[in-house]
Amino acid sequence: MGTIGNLDDPRLCYDYENREHGTVEPDTKRARFQWVSEVAYKNVHRIISRGYDTTELVEQGYSLADIIFIDFQSRIPLIEEEKMLNYVMILALDDGLSSPAAISRIISSSQTLLTQAAGASILAFGHAYGAFEAFGKMLDEYLAMSEEQGKTTEEIAELLVKEHLNDEFLGVSSLMLKDPAAKRMFARAEKLGVAGKYIAFTREIIKAAQKISEEPVDLDMLGAMGATMMDLGFSSEATWAILAVTRAFAGGAHFCEEMEREPFERFGQRLTPKGLYDGPEDRSVPSLAERKKFAAAEQYKTPEEWKRGSEKKQKMKGTGWAIVEDIADPRTMKK
Amino acid sequence: MNREPLLKRKTAISYKTEEKTVLRGYNLSDLAEEGYTFCDALFVLFQERLPTENEEKMLEYETAEFLEHSMSPSAAGAIAVISGRPHLPAAIAGAVMTFGSAHGPGAAHGYMMHRYIERAREEGKSLEEMGKILVDEYLDAGLPVMGLGQPQHTDGDPRAEPTHIKHEQLGVSGVYLELQRSIEKHFNERRKKEGKSFVAVNMIGAGNTALAELGFSPNAAWCIGCVCRGFSCAAHALYSMKKGHAWAASKREPMVQMLDLSMIKYIGPEDRPVPSQEERQEYAKKQKEEGEYKKWAL
What we know:
The structure holds two protein chains of two kinds. Chain A has helices at residues 54-59, 64-73, 79-93, 99-108, 114-122, 132-149, 153-164, 181-192, 197-212, 221-231, 236-261, 291-294, 303-314, and strands spanning 40-42, 47-49, 52-53, 172-173, 218-219. Chain A is mainly alpha-helical. Among the domains of chain A are: 38-77, no CATH class; 78-267, no CATH class. In chain A, helix 8 runs parallel beside helix 10 and helix 9 (197-212) runs antiparallel to helix 10 (221-231). The longest helix of chain A is centred in the last third of the chain and has 26 residues, at 236-261. By secondary structure, chain B is mainly alpha-helical. Chain B has two domains: 12-50, no CATH class; 52-246, CATH 1.10.230.10. In chain B, a hairpin with a 2-residue loop joins strand 2 and strand 3.
């Protein structure tokens, strides 16, 4: 067998032809692989979560909400905390025909399994819709700043609002000016004695936002649930996860209703009217022989060329060039 | 801000206005203020009704019991997905999607129960008789009877029989438990005759029977079970994310990791040279004619 492609190129830092074939021998120097967990284990006869036998827990009358506390926080909650989690979860269960329901219904319309649709509905939770992680991290970041800089939470809330007033994850918006449900949640948390620093700080954020916002704003459901969950001791990530899963139960109901009331979709069924299209005008496809005449390379030789090229591409919607985002690495997140 | 629904659909589930969110006629905020539980709300969601206290207790028992199951396909799925460090919801979604015809086949069990309850009615047979018919028909056809046996809890799932007992104790039993008990009895009688060992009920047989008895449709029951597991899978994914290494292949760990190269055992075709493009057509023609590839094709 002769050389294959560029695999004998001297710039390669290895001798490709003489590299070994075959799989790697089992590693006997280190301990064998095991599923390491602080959360739970099971054996043939028992399932243990954070040290508690789950069958014993339910036989003792512990609830779904209790087990969520145990799994995420390794503790049995106070009765008031358990009540408050139930309260938050009821409010998180349904949100009408919003993203999770729509995703679940679209997947249902392809005739899939319920678990695909309910699972996919969880994917709706990002840093805008259901942005509980972003909201919680924001609170943690500014509360830490208040401590480090010796500033009052009122001062820090003003700074936070200045930097985040129009962000989807602020927790304060115009969404619930007529619906008292979010404010009732804070009132209930206070009545049950489970309100803490996150609810107090969110109240400061509301005041600060109302001072500088041009439109009327108030606490919204994201802020109410996020702050309450964090006062119940859940991390921002745990809050995000628990509420996304909670919403997925209703995703299942939307899956069922779509199947019960609507016909299935077929591949190729949906038309996209030209009126919705604003891309390049219809044009004829050149023959392969004519390709050279029409095709132009788009590699940039200098940063200046690159800049001009990327600005041009930003005008072409659907290429991704107009998006600038931070794909955060969770390994670098604040613990 | 556009506040129109994302899909235009007639729905009997809920509506949301600027003033309130209403689920099956109940204002969600009022439900929470009155002190109803999340399990009560699941009855409202899937059945348009508030449950009795004992029905709510049974649902609390079932969901709390089913929530955590340590290392199952769902938790393993969550851990595998989070090893690439996507957003956390991706790992939870992946976990919920592991539920199918082998892992937690709740809807399939529910439909099986419905078919045989309907036949009992049509054929004028008792549920006790129908349990034997079901077992014989399934086993004679070489099909597994859903709701029995668990690959890890080989002596019987520790959650299952207590769930049956709670089901009876709370006075919420009916046709489903009667049929399920009959299936278990006749299944093991037949195994005994065939000299085989006892196989106990699993959490589909026990938990799904309870959910069906509480009035949940096969898909609603499946949803409750599988989505509920999503809570614990989120905890497993979070643990892995916060306290484990991304990629799950680090050589620096004292223990061999899930994706260490030494974990791979390959049993496919022997390593073989890649033909050049000049050789390709002849090579491919011969390969197709010889047909050895069919042994490997999936």
